[in-house]
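We close this part of the discussion by returning to an individual protein. The encoding preserves chain order, so positions in sequence and tokens coincide. The sequence in question and its structure tokens are set out directly beneath this paragraph:

===
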Amino acid sequence: MLIKSECIWVGGSFIPAIIDIRGKKIQDILPYHKKAADVDYGKKRIVPGFIDIHTHGAYGFDTNSADPKGLKKWKRHLPSEGVTTFLATTTAAKKEVLHKALETVAGVKKEETPGADILGVHLESPYFNKKYHGVQPLEAIAKPSVKEFEDYQKAADGLIRVITLATEYDDNLELTKYCSQHGVIVSIGHSSATLEQAVLAVANGAKSITHTYNGMSGFSHRANGLVGAALRLDSLYSEIICDCNHCTPEALNLLFRTKGKEKPVMISDSVMCKGFQPGERFCFSGLEVEIYPDGSAHLVKEKNFAGSTLKMNEGLKNLVEKALVPFDAALNSCSVNPASLLGENDHIGSLISGYDADIVVLDSNYDVLETYCKGVREIF
């Protein structure tokens, strides 16, 4: 299939071109007038598929619920927001709940059902600091354990790609070192770590910060905290929820100014209530959650954040139009940057010959018109 547009994102800018899709891959990027196209998108923008490495669920499904039908429905809907690849993300729970959730994700991945590709699992649990547990149930929080993690990885059939943990509770940084040496990315989060503790974690393999600014020790001029580590340590990738609720546009702008084009990673951190209307309530992690008019999800009783309902195309729009982040840096954060963090940037995250044909067509308002997942034009 040949698709063309006057605005295809190649090499950090929009150019007129043709994309030649053969099977699951991009065969060629051709000059605009080289051939007649099967589909002509005019001046619509064509960009790489979005990669969401931290998303718990949507449309009534939560990863912990271990419902194969719900997972398949979720992955089928993700292309409607431009997502072509994602990590199904857990929350803290009893061991048996997590085991079942991990087994379910592994089972669905093997089926290769329509929609976005499940690249793996983000184990955002259960090794947290209780001070920053958020909506994670306190009774499920545990001390980092290599043996326990090995059990989780076995249940996931090796699919755990990222783990969030509070590095200050990882004795001798044993789990940090183990995961780093076995191809699992360690992301520091739900943590009261000092800047100094974060530096030691990085020295032993940690590569990322989980939902920067949220669920962590804050920054002051005398105690820099984990926020300070995110801003100061150039090698660290920084997840960021770009709904302009969890972080102000100014905080988003500051992170991108500090981290540059290559290290911010946009995430949705979406929960099961994404796709529903403000005012509706759900049970998430055993707690009652309500959607507010601005789209954010809050605990009904405590009123604090319980995750988001953010769609990734909306996050891209927020970054550019509200946080005033340059388009190239904003797009990198949901394409090439997460691909690089995961070590998958040799086949996803960019529109390059030989890469997977993960392609998104956007209108001028950032609405998703079409999404191709590995060359398949998705229906949503």
The first strand starts at residue 2 and ends at 10. Residues 49-348 form a domain with the TIM Barrel fold (CATH 3.20.20.140). The two ends are 20 Å apart (CA to CA).
